Amino acid sequence: MPKKAEQPASFETALKELEHIVSRLESGELPLEEALNEFEHGVRLARQGQQTLQQAEQRVQILLNDDDASPLAPFTPDAE
Question: What DSSP assignment string belongs to the chain?
Answer without folding.
Answer: -PPPPPPPSSHHHHHHHHHHHHHHHHHT-S-HHHHHHHHHHHHHHHHHHHHHHHHHHHHHHHHHHT-TTS------PPP-
